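Dear Dr. H.,

I hope your travels went smoothly. While you were away I took the liberty of generating a structure for the chain from your last submission, since the lab meeting agenda had it listed for discussion. I wanted you to have the full record in hand beforehand rather than looking at slides cold. The sequence, exactly as received, is reproduced here:
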Amino acid sequence: MDWSDSWRGAFRIELRAEAVSLAYRGWPVLPGTYPAGTEDGVTKWAGRSGLELHGPIPVHRDWVDRVGTSPDQVATWWAGRSYSLLVATGHVVDAIEVGTGLGRRAAVALRSIGVPVPIAATPSGRWMFLVKSGSTLNAELANNPDVHLYGKGEYIPLPPTTMAHGVVHWRVKPQVCGWNLPDAHVVQDALVEAVHAPARYELEAV
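The corresponding predicted structure, in token form, is as follows:
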């Protein structure tokens, strides 16, 4: 993709608006590094003092101390650059990340019981189910290499963050569930069901 300044600039206003909106709802928003071209086929990430080989990561090295920053301050972070939109997990929101196949089947299971859950997806094919903070994975999911729980001390990218090969996007927007995050066990139950569901269920997913 073309990571020119003009291309990134097209996202700056949207990124800032999304960041401020989440901050007003109490979500711990953080600015993250953003793609700055490739070298030898490797994407470089800008936003810190120098270019990074991996991203997006928080711009501020003391990002843990900045959790809970006011919306007004959040707005100033995106005033000049198209930083990635990160949210620190373990405070208000956690995320259960799975691969596309498992994610689709879990979405079917949740839809069948009428429980909408915010779901963000990365260009690399990872789905993140957003849940209330404070839970741990049950034994079956904890032993599944396709499942990761983002909790305290971690962070996730949210739309419209740009990645190496595309943009993070919503599969199910938080507005659909009235910004009410589900308890983690609801999503975990759906994931366990999805683990044992036939692959054809993917065809019915969102």
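Two observations you may find useful: Residues 3-196 form one domain. Residues 174 and 200 are 27 Å apart (CA to CA).

With kind regards,
E. W.
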